[in-house]
Amino acid sequence: MSLLPTTASRRLVPAASLALMLAACGSPSSSPTSSPIPPAVSPGASGAPSGSPSASPAAGAPGLLLEVTSEGGFINPLATLSTVPTVVVDTDGRIYTPAVNATAASIVASVEVRDVGPQGAARILDAIRAAGLDRERSGGGVAADTGSTVFTAVVDGSIAVSRFVRAGGGPGGPGGPGVPGGIGGPGASGNADDGAAAAFALLAQLTDPAVTWGAAAAHETSYVPVGYRVFEAPGDAVDPAGATIAWPLATGLAGFGAPAVPDMGATGLRSGVVTGADAAALAPLLATATPDTAFTSGGVAYRLWVRPLFPDALGG
Question: What is the pTM of this model?
Fold first, then answer.
């Protein structure tokens, strides 16, 4: 079977971070633009799960080295459910970033992956330490309208979460780090020594395809997800063509996963993880779906929000 509970490797952000994400769930408000910690999933969502929260990581499975997400800002909480992190770096040297030319019409965000190998991962680990992200940091003041960038690093088995206020266009853009009004630049709200400048400089390198971290080459390729985090709630979607897709899995959407608490303003919101053969069956249908597509199950229409999973999420 192929529905898994959320693994320990993705339960990285303290409960306080989740509380920030879920504040004011009913309407556009302050909430994260991507969530590093999805709601829990109970075992047995579609039969016996192929893993459990207490399972040991599979031999050789990559772990999480660094994840960068966003929280805060004036965004409808439901819009965050399908948002992928700004960057994910796994211990095997694979770097995952949202596709630059991705279309908003797809229900699953497109992701690009670069492989800099284990030696590249070692250099990134050194850079994480040099940036001070192996210990918790924060800076940049408070900016409810733009939110914060969250750096979650796993170093020597310890998790460190740092938060810095986004100031403008981000790395390399207007208001980015080191430029007027940006983090670490003239007029910045944060202190020059709060670690923000170094953190955003590292982020700029990780999202730059020209930086190979010592590898001979690190070409970007399209990432094929190993599975999906699926959120669903009853209700007609708003596809103007009226298109619907029949839910293909044996477990219907009425009993899929487990209730998501809170429900982010969507009555009946549930969440589950789809992997293995179920993910293979679901993938071609997701490829044709948009955020406005309705999925039907048991004679009821549902709306879906889908997020691709990365290999470190399945390591346990």
Answer: 0.75
Cα–Cα distance for residue pair 142/146, rounded to 1 Å: 9
Report the candidate in 308, 313, 316, 314 with the shortest Cα–Cα distance to residue 81.
308
**Residue of 105, 85, 81, 106 whose CA lies nearest to 97:** 85
CA distance 295 to 301: 6
Half-sphere exposure at residue 232, Cβ-oriented, CA atoms within 13 angstroms:
25
Bridging pattern class, strands 294-297 and 29-30: unpaired
Q: Measure Cα distances from 224 to 80, 210, 228, 305 in Å.
A: 21, 22, 11, 18
Residues 175-184 have pLDDT tens digits of 344 333 343 4
Residues 148-177 have pLDDT tens digits of 899 999 999 999 999 998 654 443 333 344
| Alpha carbons 200 and 193: distance in angstroms, whole number | 13
Q: How far apart are CA 203 and CA 131, in angstroms?
A: 10
Neighbours of 46 (CB within 10 A): 18
78, two tokens: 């439901």
Where residue 145 falls (left for φ over 0; alpha for ψ -120 to 50; beta otherwise) is alpha
| Closest C-alpha among 56, 133, 55, 51 to residue 87 | 133
Residue 228 CA: distances (Å) to CA of 115, 133, 245, 250? 21, 28, 17, 16
